[in-house]
């Protein structure tokens, strides 16, 4: 959970890091505020994920910000604006900022935050931040655990779609390996959940992916 004495803020450039949408539920366990900026189409999320995010959105811990006009750097300008506004509202000494974007130009915003005395850094979508590691020990509800770990697995495979298993047995083994250290012996439930969410369908022993994620 978030430490009152050390508040963390996450700012996401969704235009060039779209897979971050699947990490929101996990990241809310660590970050006090999350700002998601997009300049193109509004993000599409599953009903299950929407239910998980409803409470943080209501309490202003999570905010989606769409630019009025789309453009190459629209989301970048949104992130810069919110980084500046939050730095003026929140304690300099007690607030840390993490910007998730593949656009190195946002390093200018990071440097300005640092010049103001804030702790700040940028990571690209290909990096795995500490916040993306899901601590399931703090969650007691089994269906919620299954939802979160399935979402994390799907996000990983979306980033590496060429490595997605093509057969049922191989997919179950892949899920088992993914969950071995964090959520063992639940690969069948996760498999069933992903199938129910129309991530794939099973034809005999063959897996047909339905999402077109690349």
Features:
214 residues, alpha/beta, Rossmann fold, Arc Repressor Mutant, subunit A, five-stranded parallel beta sheet, two-stranded antiparallel sheet, 7 helices, 7 strands, elongated
Q: Tell me the span between the first and last alpha carbons.
A: 32 Å
How confident is the prediction overall: mean pLDDT?
82
The proportion of residues forming helix, as a percent range, comes to 25-40%
Spatially, the strands of the biggest sheet line up as 3-2-1-4-5
Domains counted in the coordinates: how many? 2
CATH topology-level name of the largest domain: Rossmann fold
**Which structural class is indicated by helix and strand composition?**
alpha/beta
CATH architecture of the largest domain: 3-Layer(aba) Sandwich
CATH superfamily of the largest domain: 5'-nuclease
Low-confidence stretches: 127-135
- Discrete helix count: 7
Q: Which geometry do the CA atoms define?
A: elongated
CATH class of the largest domain reads Alpha Beta
Largest sheet: 5 strands, parallel
Q: Rg to the nearest angstrom?
A: 18 Å
| Number of E strands | 7
Order of helices and strands: EHEHEHEHEHHHEE
How much strand? Answer: 15-25%
Organism: Thioploca ingrica
Domain PIN-like: 11-117
Protein name: PIN-like domain-containing protein
InterPro entries: PIN7 (IPR041494)
């Amino acid at each position: 959970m978030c430490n009152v004495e050390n508040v963390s803020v996450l700012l996401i450039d969704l235009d060039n890091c779209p897979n971050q949408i699947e990490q929101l539920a996990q990241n809310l366990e660590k970050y006090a505020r999350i700002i998601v900026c997009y300049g193109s189409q509004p993000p599409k999320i599953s009903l299950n994920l929407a239910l998980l995010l409803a409470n943080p959105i209501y309490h202003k811990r999570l905010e989606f910000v769409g630019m009025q006009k789309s453009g190459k750097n629209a989301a970048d300008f949104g992130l810069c604006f919110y980084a500046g506004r939050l730095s003026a509202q929140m304690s300099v000494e007690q607030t840390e900022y993490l910007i998730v974007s593949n656009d190195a130009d946002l390093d200018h915003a990071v440097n300005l935050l640092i010049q103001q005395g804030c702790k700040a850094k940028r990571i690209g979508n290909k990096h795995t931040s500490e916040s993306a590691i899901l601590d399931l020990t703090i969650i007691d509800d089994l269906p919620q655990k299954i939802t979160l770990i399935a979402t994390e697995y799907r996000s990983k495979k979306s980033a590496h779609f060429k490595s997605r298993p093509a057969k049922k047995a191989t997919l179950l083994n892949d899920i088992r390996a993914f969950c071995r250290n964090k959520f063992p012996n639940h690969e069948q439930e996760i498999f069933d959940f992903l199938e129910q969410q129309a991530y794939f369908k099973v034809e005999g022993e063959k897996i047909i992916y339905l999402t077109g994620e690349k």
